[in-house]
Amino acid sequence: MNRISILLSDIIRGQNTLHYLRKFERLSGASHEEAEAYRMERLRELLVHCERNVPFYNNRFRECGFSAREFSSPDQLKMIPPLTRQDLQDHWHEIVAANYRDRKLSAGSSGGSTGQPVFYRKDSRATSAGQAAHLLGWSLSGWKMSMKGLHIWGNPTTVNEEWGRISSRLKARIYRHHKFPAYTLHDGSRLRDLYDMICRERYDFIDGYTNAIYHFAEYLKSNNLSFSRPLKYVLTTAENLHDFQRKAIEDVIAPVYDTYGCSEINSIAYECCKCGLYHVIDPHVFVEYGEALDEFGNRELYVTDLDNFAFPMLRYRNGDLAIPAEGDVPDCPLSFSRLKAISGRETDMITLPDGGMLSVPSFFGSMLLKKVNGLKQYQVEKVSENMLHINLVTNERFTPADLDTIESALGEYLNGRIGYLIRTVDSIDISKSGKFRLVIDRTRQ
Ligand SMILES: [Zn+2]
Questions:
Q1: How far is the CA of 266 from the centre of ligand 1 (A)?
Q2: Which pLDDT score, from 0 to 100, does residue 374 have?
Q3: Predicted TM-score of the model (pTM)
């Protein structure tokens, strides 16, 4: 990848990633005052736009007594109730800005770590800024555009439907960023294929699902495999990175840098090789924290996307928890704000009878959810060594065809390796801790 390839991709896709990348890079080197002035201006512009053009926020501001025109300090944002996943489920059509309704918007959905599907929209500006923030975030680990990488990602639907497209294959070639399907890694032969591919292609880095890469590292270790040309980095994302996983990956592959975002708001925070903490990409997102929930200092995250005017997300409570960096923290030349840890996305893995692993969020990925109507919530319950219960809470829009879609996708994914029963239930209980659990393993209780 280089700047010319980004420009080419921008022209082909009608985006302006390069423009945002230059802007974010400049702000990363600017004084704290200048960077803050940019953020405040952006926030003010977004809030005024919400008040004028977004029915959902117009109502909400009136109800809570917030006035966008009188906005002068980030503290005033606290008047606005956080945007919840429930809000996105029930009111997403009122969140589309009136002056963007006739424009081309891309539709997205996410199951996230909460098992509660949500729907959102983005215009090309939001997508471009998200990508630019991502490139800047990756560079904090020492990653450079000239490096060649392998992306370990995807459920069967993404792999079969998206990766085969000419545009996707062309992009992989232009960016020198190849792809490997994460969901196939529980199969021993594919682990060997992945190892062979990395040796053959001489990648500089790999990135992708934390659990898939961890599983691969365990395989390398137990088979005494190593790389004659070591990788420079491993970039993990989408699932919580535990210390034991970081250690296992670093022992056999390369230093790990974790990255954090969600599909509704891309590119939120990235681990930095200089200070060892996560930096929030401040010019792109405004991050706030709720009250401390436990003795570790975990807090709810409220994230505002400063670049999505088509579908504004103000103070979005996405269900993740984080520990902000406060008190005694190492110096860093980069002034962007910092996080100590992302702690909300527990690994939602199920062990199969043949020793393989099933990553539930990667199966119920956005591609499957986009095809199914009326699914409100899901939970996977392992009731015995050989049996899963897939519990679904549905609404009136859910049809027998939707059930067939889930049934056939599950059949393809599990491929007879574990039994399953799909059940429609009235509701799914919240755990004792108050947090929704996507996966319940009854065999361990
Ligand atoms: Zn740093």
A1: 20
A2: 77
A3: 0.81
